[in-house]
Amino acid sequence: MKQNLNIFFYKLLLRVKKKFYFNSIKIWSHKNLNSSKFIISFDFETQRDIEIIEKLTNKLKKINILPYYAIPGELIEKNSEILKSLGPKITYINHGYKVHTKFCRKKKKNFSSFSYLKKSTKIINEDIKKGDLVIKKVLKQQSRIFRTPHFGEFCEKEKMNLIYKILSNLNYKYSLSTTPIFSLINKPIYVVNKITEIPCNAYIDNPKQVIDSWSLHIKAITTKNLIDELNRYYNIMLKNNMILNIYFDPSDIIHIEDFFFIVSKFSKYQIKHLGS
């Protein structure tokens, strides 16, 4: 109840003082970081994303960005050979086991096929543990990072406390599962039950909008808006310590050359071995 009131309060505050979000992140980063930190990850929701994983991996390699890939266990099992062929320099994020998104080629839209909402503790626990096991067995890697399916819909304290308990029992270290407002409610980097949570960042002048590629789908943001915002963060990081955590769906950005150009600039700030 208290957290819901906090969410309501900060949403109301951000309507009146849009710069409050950025100023809070900036002050915290200045006090707590010895250098700027950059995290970028990619959510492979459907087979459509897997079809371009080699192309994406090669693009990231050329710009010196270490790939962080969140892939449901079912997709890992289905595409084990191609994933193993990518080599060891991929950090895999446990994204649960069940495929949670279906792509309708006729309508060219993604649809939810599985969600943690209204699911029992047992089902959620099994999905996380199976996702972890697949990464171990198929990819021979011990994942230490988790992201909930359908980013942002499972952020409330009581829900995330369940997630953190499960992750802690699996000896995980990080979760990348919460929206920007939790940087205000808590901190830009905070710890719960031995799990370090790092909320995603928002647009500086539009703090209720996550920096992602889903916003391009719903036309809340244009490609130019996205590139301009990344440039803006980069210029800030040249002068100030700053945390920037962003994620994208591969199919949405693979053909945007300006995206890879601006992301290449952040290479010197990337946390290369988060979770290792």
Write the layout of secondary structure elements.
Blueprint: H1 2-16, H2 19-32, E1 37-43, H3 47-50, H4 53-62, E2 68-71, H5 73-78, H6 80-85, E3 91-94, E4 101-104, E5 109-112, H7 121-139, E6 145-146, H8 157-169, E7 174-175, H9 181-185, E8 190-192, E9 195-197, E10 202-203, E11 206-210, H10 214-217, H11 223-239, E12 243-248, H12 250-253, H13 257-265
Parallel strand pairs: 1-2, 1-12, 2-3, 6-7, 7-9
Antiparallel strand pairs: 4-5, 8-9, 10-11
Helix pairs in contact: 7-8, 11-13
Structure in words:
The chain is α/β, with parallel strands linked by helices and 276 residues long. It has one domain: Glycoside hydrolase/deacetylase (TIM Barrel). The chain is built from 13 helices and twelve strands. Helix 7 crosses helix 8.
